[in-house]
């Protein structure tokens, strides 16, 4: 199959997968990690665009209660935004039920679980690993790349070698559940992504600590049954995640190829620098992607953003995306406004 043909096929398949499963899995508003539901007595709210939250804040893509709670605990104990972002996303990396991140992630079309992650601190330092195999916590390896090497990105076997040298334990990441799905997929797939298999649970986390410093992290196993070696937006600084401590941060979930094409998270931070609220900046980020697609809307993208003042925002193409927000007032799932309106 030539490259163009494959991309057409995978774009068709995977975009449908993302859009359909986003609708299927998220309209319930359920807490994906099974903990920390909406605060008693507090209804879920739509985007709190105007409110400036004081003090520490943690927010993450999707309704990951345990992850945002882990980040909040670090912040509440006076920890740094960087430690909080890492601690938060590690929860989902270890969650075998999340089949889009870390342990239990769906494999590529050749059966390998390959992980992508990045992390960025409030001084503009960043680190990333791409197509890392055999390590449960790519975000922590990415942090080591940031802190222990003169580089920003390590990929594949080089990243794995570095992780071993840094003392990270290796482990099998393909769970029985993921293996069974993969075996099923192989029967009919002809090695193309298939609609309705991919879940859409990449975690991007933004944190602000009590000193007001912002950091972020993003981690994923990428698209299910992707081409071997495929990397999406999540570990690409500027695309899946960007932080500028003067302005704020943004992170993405969804069809990574589209986020990379517009360097989505960087775009949103720059729009906030020019004065847009996080909400307005996320909306413009989604519109920019749609404009490049000339009417094609059969894929999902979700952005979240946080500015220095403590305002948050989010926007997505299809209804069903939400983010989990944790601050001194507690935690809640915040449904995102969408470009395409929910059917009434
Ligand atoms: C990727 N952005 O690899 C990721 C996919 C994703 O939940 O967000 N899945 O393109």
TrEMBL record:
Q: Name one GO cellular component term.
A: cytoplasm
Checking Pfam families in the record gives: Asparaginase_2
Coiled coil ranges (UniProt) are: none
Q: Where is this site: Cleavage?
A: 201-202
GO function terms (MF aspect): hydrolase activity, acting on carbon-nitrogen (but not peptide) bonds, in linear amides
Where are the catalytic residues? Answer: 202 (nucleophile)
At the top level, the lineage of the source is Bacteria
User: Which PROSITE patterns did the record assign?
Assistant: PROKAR_LIPOPROTEIN (PS51257)
Q: Where does substrate bind?
A: 230-233, 253-256
This chain's protein is named: N4-(Beta-N-acetylglucosaminyl)-L-asparaginase
């Amino acid at each position: 199959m030539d490259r163009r043909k494959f991309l057409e096929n995978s774009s068709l398949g995977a975009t449908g997968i993302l859009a359909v499963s986003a609708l299927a899995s998220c309209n319930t508003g359920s807490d994906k990690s099974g903990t920390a539901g909406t605060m008693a007595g507090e209804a879920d709210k739509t985007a709190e665009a105007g409110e400036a939250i004081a003090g520490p804040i943690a927010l993450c893509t999707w309704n990951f209660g345990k992850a945002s709670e882990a980040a909040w605990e670090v912040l509440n104990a006076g920890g740094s935004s960087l430690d909080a972002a890492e601690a938060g996303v590690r929860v989902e990396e270890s969650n075998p039920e999340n089949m889009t991140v870390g342990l239990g992630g769906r494999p590529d079309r050749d059966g390998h679980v390959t992980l992508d992650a990045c992390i960025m601190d409030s001084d503009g330092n960043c680190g990333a690993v791409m197509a890392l195999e055999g390590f449960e916590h790519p975000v922590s390896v990415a942090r080591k790349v940031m802190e222990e090497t003169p580089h920003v990105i390590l990929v594949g076997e080089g990243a794995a070698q570095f992780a071993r040298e840094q003392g990270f334990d290796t482990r099998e990441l393909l769970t029985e559940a993921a293996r069974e799905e993969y075996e099923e997929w192989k029967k009919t797939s002809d090695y193309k992504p298939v609609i309705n298999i991919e879940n859409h649970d990449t975690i991007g986390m933004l944190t602000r600590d009590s000193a007001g410093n912002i950091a972020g992290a993003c981690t994923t196993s990428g698209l299910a049954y992707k081409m071997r070696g495929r990397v999406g937006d999540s570990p690409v600084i500027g695309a899946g995640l960007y932080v500028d401590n003067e302005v704020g941060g943004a992170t993405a979930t969804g069809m990574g190829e589209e986020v990379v094409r517009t360097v989505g998270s960087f775009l949103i931070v720059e729009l906030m620098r020019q004065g847009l609220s996080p909400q307005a900046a996320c909306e413009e980020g989604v519109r920019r992607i749609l404009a490049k697609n000339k009417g094609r809307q059969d894929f999902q993208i979700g952005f979240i953003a946080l500015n220095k003042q403590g305002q948050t925002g989010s926007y997505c193409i299809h209804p069903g995306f939400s983010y989990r927000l944790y601050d001194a007032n507690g935690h809640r799932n915040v449904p995102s406004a969408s470009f395409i309106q929910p059917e009434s």
